[in-house]
Specification:
Number of strands: 18
Number of helices: 11
CATH architecture of the largest domain: Alpha-Beta Barrel
CATH topology of the largest domain: TIM Barrel
Helix content: 25-40%
Bound molecules: pyridoxal-5'-phosphate
CATH superfamily of the largest domain: Alanine racemase
Distance between the termini: 24 Å
Radius of gyration: 24 Å
């Protein structure tokens, strides 16, 4: 996590770029240092870093792999715009996301997925002209066809989302079975066969054009595991297409590329992944692959910056209470991890009383909520020497952070939002 040697035990602080701030970009560090205490907490995004990261991901992928961004991970408009040059489109999973993403990046192709699409959402998506439909059930085919019946001449492109049983067979990992168990997502393989028949033989096929298969089966997979899953999805899809005699144009192998919260410097191996996908494509001429990562694109570009309000000793342990908490950054509570953070020391202490500080070498960083679940980092070594008024930057807060948090709980003020 953080270096613990960034200041000596007597509080002799260093100014300027701190060796402790290894993963905080210079722009973010300077920006947070210049904020007034009442401007904290704040989400600070480094859009230049996001653009560079997304461009590197794109560059690692073969031409016949389309890169979509799953807006669910973080739909903030400046991020969507920053990603535009590197992505082929955006995956949206609700009518709300659809309208929002269309407004933010009007020219971008959209793939519309998600279970339980309402008739109104389907009508709006037909109206908006989405690029791909990820159909989750047989009834959804009928609902879509019913909307299209009022628009003769309109044809939409469909991928059937399947819930396949696959295994990962990465060299040093125990094979892990995924998919193939009960979920509300997608079609069982036999149901997919039925839907293919309905689309290729029946009237449903008049306005619904079957392009291929979509499968998003797991999250947190490393490149080797992702490749193993991808080749199984493609093999199954090719066999399905062969059985029914339709041309397999596309397979969307989903998102879920690994993000390691214990190592903010680690990245999914996009180079190995791209090379593996190139081999897979060599074996399937004419096939287009699509991926739709969310977390692995935007997690690294956001920080939740705040300050220490108080440091307390409780039954032998140190607690640093920060402005804000899990109502702004729910990620650690949801995932049961400690959010990585780095400390920006603040020298000024204008008060006449003693400055509260961590003395046990570690502290739990908690927020302002009156619940013991409001913990951002548990018994963290990186909090050694932390004092009231020091600033803390929680990293990897660019995805599934603000937008999954329960903002109204306890009625604290909202954080600021800054896009650099
Ligand atoms: C959530 C989701 C994604 C993105 O997953 P990440 O783990 O953020 O990469 C992609 N596709 C579908 C269908 C999803 O539900």
């Amino acid at each position: 996590m953080t270096d613990t040697d960034h200041r000596d035990r007597h509080g002799d602080l260093h100014q300027g770029l701190h060796p402790g701030l290894r993963h905080v970009t210079e722009g973010v560090r300077a920006h947070v240092a210049a904020l007034a205490p009442d401007e904290l907490p704040a989400y600070v995004y480094d859009l230049a870093a996001l653009r560079a990261h997304a461009a590197a991901v794109r560059a690692a992928l073969p031409e016949r792999v389309e890169l979509y961004y799953a807006a669910k991970a973080n739909p903030e408009a400046p991020l969507l715009t920053a990603l535009r040059a590197a992505v082929d489109g955006y995956e949206v999973s609700s009518g709300g996301e659809l309208a929002h993403v269309r407004a933010a990046v009007p020219d971008a192709p959209l793939a519309f997925g998600g279970p339980g699409k309402t008739p109104a959402e389907i009508a709006a998506a037909v109206e908006a002209g989405v690029h791909r439909w990820h159909v989750e059930s047989e009834q959804e085919l009928h609902r879509l066809a019913a909307v299209l019946a009022d628009r003769p001449g309109t044809v939409v492109d469909v991928l059937l989302r399947v819930n396949l049983a696959v295994t990962t067979d990465a060299l040093d990992a125990v094979p892990l079975a995924m998919g193939g168990r009960p979920t509300p997502f997608g079609l069982d393989p036999d149901q997919a066969e039925e839907c293919v028949r309905a689309l290729t033989d029946g009237p449903l096929g008049r306005q619904l054009r079957l392009r291929g298969v979509h499968a998003h089966l797991a999250s947190g997979l490393a490149a080797e595991e992702q490749l193993s899953v991808a080749s199984q999805i493609v093999a199954w899809s090719a066999a399905l297409a062969g059985r029914h005699g339709f041309p397999l144009a596309e397979v969307n192998i989903g998102g879920g590329m690994a993000v390691d919260y214990e190592d903010p410097a680690a990245r999914f191996d996009w180079t190995a992944f791209g090379e593996g996908l190139a081999k897979l494509l060599d074996a399937h001429p004419g096939l287009t692959l699509r991926i739709e990562p969310g977390r692995a694109l935007t997690a690294y570009c956001g920080w939740y910056a705040t300050e220490v309000l108080d440091v307390k000793q409780s039954h032998g342990e140190d607690f640093a209470v920060v402005r804000g908490g899990t109502h702004h950054l729910r990620t650690p509570a949801t995932r049961g991890h400690s959010q990585p953070f780095e400390v920006l020391p603040v020298d000024a202490w204008p008060y006449p009383w003693a400055r509260p500080a961590v003395t046990t070498g570690r502290a739990t960083l908690s927020g302002q909520l009156c619940t013991p679940k409001d913990v951002l980092a548990h018994a963290a070594d990186g909090a050694d020497g932390l004092r009231a008024s020091d600033r803390v930057l929680f990293s990897m807060a660019g995805a599934y952070a603000w937008n999954i948090s329960h903002h109204e709980f306890l009625m604290h003020p909202r954080p600021g939002f800054h896009y650099l």
